[in-house]
């Protein structure tokens, strides 16, 4: 994955919905257009977090599987 991120969150071992809440709070501290890299576990986290951030209006740029973990790149969009 070649996309650089501006910040990273390691949420492996964090259960739903806390992983989404932590992702949302981190995105709120970032500027529009910045990219957040989030490490998530397989199962509910990788199914729910990307969908939830898209529902919030942000863009999921990529998802990459690394062993039992996923790296998700999320671009912060304007929050009108």
Give a brief rundown of this model.
This protein has 80 residues and is an alpha+beta fold. It has 2 helices and 4 strands, in the order βαβαββ.
How are the secondary structure elements laid out?
Blueprint: E1 7-10, H1 18-28, E2 35-41, H2 44-55, E3 59-66, E4 69-75
Parallel strand pairs: 1-2
Antiparallel strand pairs: 2-4, 3-4
Q: Overview of this structure, please?
A:
It is a single chain. 26% of the residues are buried. The protein has a four-stranded mixed sheet, with helices on one face. The protein has helices at residues 18-28, 44-55, and strands at residues 7-10, 35-41, 59-66, 69-75. The longest helix is centred in the middle third of the chain and has 12 residues, at 44-55. It is of the alpha+beta class. The mean pLDDT is 95.
The proportion of residues in beta strands is: 25-35%
Task: Give helix % range.
Answer: 25-40%
Question: How are the strands ordered across the major sheet?
Answer: 1-2-4-3
What overall geometry do the principal axes of the alpha carbons give? globular
**Estimated structural class:** alpha+beta
Poorly predicted regions are: none
Enumerate how many helices there are, as a single number.
2
Rg from Cα: 11 Å
Task: Give the distance, in angstroms, between the N- and C-terminal Cα atoms.
Answer: 30 Å
Q: Count the E strands.
A: 4
Mean pLDDT: 95
Profile the largest sheet: 4 strands, mixed
Topology pattern, helix = H, strand = E: EHEHEE
